[in-house]
Structures are given as structure tokens and as C-alpha cells.
Write a structure and sequence with these properties.
- Two copies of one chain form a homodimer.
- Chain A is an alpha+beta fold.
- Chain A folds into two domains: about 150 residues, Jelly Rolls (Sandwich); about 80 residues, Arc Repressor Mutant, subunit A (Orthogonal Bundle), CATH 1.10.10.
- In chain A, about 40% of the residues lie in helices and about 25% in strands.
- In chain A, the strands form three sheets. Chain A has a five-stranded antiparallel sheet with strand order 1-2-9-4-7.
- In chain A, α3 packs across α4, α5 crosses α6 and α5 packs across α8.
- Chain A binds a DNA duplex through α7.
Chain lengths: ~230, ~230
DNA sequence: TTTCTGCGTTGATATATATCAATCAAAAGG
DNA sequence: CCTTTTGATTGATATATATCAACGCAGAAA
């Protein structure tokens, strides 16, 4: 299972997302009230429905966030790369998680006590502001996802997924997928079989090249066109 | 078109959502930097893609928020009843609206200058906190909507819609719909025809009763069961 | 009045996508 | 080593839902 890790917030401060507006004393406060943990691929960081009394900041690896459903089909609502705070509305609403977070690669994350975070939001207005900006960004991304999954056909949805993956999640082209085909399907709101057929079509049309887990985007303009038309 | 209205924030303070943590002086600040407007049914309050440099608070009526799409199918992401601040991430991200807001009934709303709101967030931590809570609530609602629209069949989706309408949007049973069938379809992520067929099925099964715009929920348990099963 | 327009309704048909089933390759485990 | 499991792929088929078309009705407009 998860392994404990020891890192000071000050060290990873440089590129640390919303936390870089904090003073040293505030970061130390977080240091004293966080757990730094390593997860193996496939391990659950938190689960939909479970109590949410800490905030999670991803410090390395890749995390998928998905909504579970009775019929066992999941919908991935977002991927998180370091260094990034995972927005989960739960702590501010009903203290339960509304999505499940799972490590896709070996991942390290800091679990920060809810009380400390909330206190920082109340005492440091700059931090509160960054926090709101962060939430807003995630909301926009959520709007895009809803829009894609409910209003577009399979081709448009897969195009959206590919454009979301590069750049952003993967930053070389070609890149080596750490996501399974099922993950890509869950990210595109369709079955694995449908996803594979669409990828094959894209490959036949020379829009992408895919061999196993090596994926290359060849014609980005074409992908954007497909995403736009739906 | 829109008609100007004159109301003091202090007057509608009592039930005024996130604003009730503000001091009198702060409310006066808003008073001086807001426009209070009346919209007729069907009128646009703000439009997706347009610049977003004010915040909107609904003070009477009913507002639908929807994502537009090229093929002219809209997806309603939420309805807002007074008194409620409409969360739009735009002002914190790219200063553009990401949804369109339209009045479904005669509606009055206050348009509050972005700068003033942001300043209040920066100076009043209590307000910032309420603001974050509000955003979080809307995010949860967004998760529910995504979950419903992407993972459930038509029956489950319409059940979700009906349960969302009562209670919450309408608070008597039976209630008089101010939404059209098309609105209900946009809220359920399907075509008008499909929606009508599902409503008919529910009526035949004695789950609801619907005559024109009068809708009564007869068997709520059954609806919840259908919503759960998808 | 008549005409027109928008909304609601119903039926017939088309189609996008899921489901089911089989196969293959690679990885994991004994 | 062989066996088992897991993920990827492909084809055949089923089905949920959209699309298309027609009609009724009520309110608005001429």
C-alpha cells in the first residue's frame, strides 16, 4: 500500500500551484499537518462517498478523477499532473468525496488537514483568491467535459480527449501512454471497443499514429476541426 | 428589453445568499456599483463567449443556464431561483462567459461590478469563504449533472430532472411548469420527442400526472428508484 | 373572422453506439 | 517451464435514441 515520504513544503514551493502565495510560516504550518504519501499505479487516493477531511496536492505522477456509477461504467472528469491541488468540493459541502481519485502512474501526494487549509483561506486573502481562481479553472474544464460528452459524437469526443492529453498531460509528441484504453474510453464517455474503433479510424486517416502505448498526433489541425464539428 | 429597477441591497439582505455576511458599508459599496434589471421570459442575461465583467445575482423569477453547441442543441447545466448568486467561473479565468443565462419567467437580477466583488473577496475573508462554499455547491451539482447525462438512460435522466424540479425549483406539488418541453429535454440531455415519450410512460405508470403545464409527482419513491438504476 | 406561428404530440424509420463473443498478445504468477 | 490473467482488437448483432414527418391545437397577428 501507500508509503510515507518526507518532504518539506518549502522545497517544492517553487512551482507549487496555489501554495506559492503562502508565507514561510504558513508553509511550515502545512508541513506540520500533512501526510506525504506514495501510491502505486491503480491505488486509490480517495473514494467517492468516503469522508473528505483533507485536501490533496499531487506532487509527482498522474492521477485520474472519476465519477463512479452503479453499472460499473466510470466517467473520468479530469487528470491531474504535479504540482497541482486536486479540487474536490466535498470539504466545503458535505465532507464527502464526490469523485474517486486513483493513481495512474507511481504518484506522490500530500494530504493536508482540512482545518489548516480552511484556516489559511480565512486568514490569507491572497491564498483564498488563488484558491477561487483554481476552482474556477476546474469548473471551466468541467463545462468543457460536459459539453463534449453530451453534445458530440464519438469522433469529436475522442478528438477532445487527444487534445486534452497533448499538450497538458503529456508534453512530448509522440508520447508514451500511461493510461489504458479503458481509461481513454472513460475519459471520452464511451466503451473501450468504440474508442479503439475511433483511434483506428484516426490512424487510417493519418491524423494520429498509435502503436501499443506510443501515441503520436500527426495532424493537430484536423483533430481540432473534428472536435469543433463534434 | 431590460428595465431598470431600484432596490437597495440592504432591503433584500435577509435572504440574500452569500451576501448576508457583508457589513452595511460593504453592501452600500455594492449598491453604488450594481445595475438592477428586469428581464422578460426568453431574454438573455448573458451569453456564452461574451465578455464577463460583472457578477449576477438573481433577485426574482427563474433563470436557466445552458451550454450552447454548434448543432444548436443546448444543455441546461442548472436553474437558478432567487435569491441566488450565479456562479460563472469566467471572471476568474478568462473574463468570458462559459454558459448562457436566459430568463424563463419574468426575472429581476442585479449585475454587480466585477472589481467590487473581487475587492470584497480580498478584504472580507468571511465573504470569500461563503463564496467558495457557493462554488463548491455548484460544482457538486455539476458532477451530478455530468453523471446523470453521461451514465444513465432516458428514464433515469428524466427522473433526475423531475427530482431536481421538485422540490427546489418548484415547491408545490402539483406545480405549474414555466419551462417548455424543449427546456426539460435540454435539462435531461435528450430530444424533445424522447422527453415527451418518457413523460408519457411515467404517466401511464402512474408515477406522475401531467396535463399541459400542470405536473404532479405521484410516486416519488418510484422516481428515485428509476434515477438510481439509471 | 382567417391565417399564421410556435409548441406539443405521435408514429415510422434511421443510425450511432453498445453489447456480445471470439481471438490474440503480453504480462504475471505458480 | 506452463498456466492464468489482463488488456487490446475485431466482427456480428442488438438496441437506445435521434431524426424525420405529419398533425392538432392554442394564441397571436392580420
Amino acid at each position: 500500500m501507500a508509503v510515507l515520504l518526507d518532504t518539506k513544503c518549502l522545497v517544492c514551493k517553487k512551482s507549487s500551484d496555489i501554495f506559492n502565495v503562502l508565507k514561510e510560516s504558513e508553509l511550515e504550518k502545512i508541513d506540520c499537518n500533512k501526510a506525504s504519501i506514495i501510491y502505486k499505479p491503480g491505488e486509490i487516493i480517495f473514494k467517492q462517498g468516503a469522508p473528505a477531511n483533507y485536501f490533496v496536492c499531487v506532487t509527482s505522477g498522474l492521477v485520474k478523477l472519476y465519477i463512479e456509477h452503479v453499472n460499473s461504467r466510470n466517467l473520468i472528469v479530469g487528470l491531474t499532473r504535479p504540482i497541482n491541488y486536486i479540487f474536490e468540493p466535498g470539504p466545503f459541502v458535505d465532507h464527502h468525496h464526490h469523485v474517486t481519485a486513483v493513481a495512474c502512474e507511481e504518484t506522490s501526494a500530500c494530504l493536508i488537514d482540512e482545518k489548516v487549509m480552511k484556516q489559511l483561506i480565512k486568514t490569507n486573502t491572497e491564498f483564498a483568491n488563488e484558491f477561487i481562481k483554481k476552482i474556477s479553472l476546474q469548473s471551466v474544464s468541467l463545462f468543457n467535459r460536459i459539453s463534449s460528452c453530451t453534445q458530440k459524437h464519438v469522433y469529436g469526443r475522442v478528438a477532445d480527449t487527444l487534445l486534452y492529453l497533448y499538450p497538458g498531460i503529456y508534453n512530448t509528441n509522440p508520447f508514451l501512454l500511461s493510461l489504458t484504453r479503458q481509461d481513454l474510453a472513460d475519459l471520452s464517455g464511451m466503451t473501450k471497443e468504440s474508442l479503439i474503433r475511433v483511434l483506428k479510424k484516426f490512424k487510417d486517416d493519418n491524423i494520429i499514429n498509435i502503436e501499443g502505448n506510443k501515441l503520436e498526433i500527426i495532424n493537430r489541425n484536423n483533430l481540432e476541426e473534428i472536435a469543433r464539428k463534434g
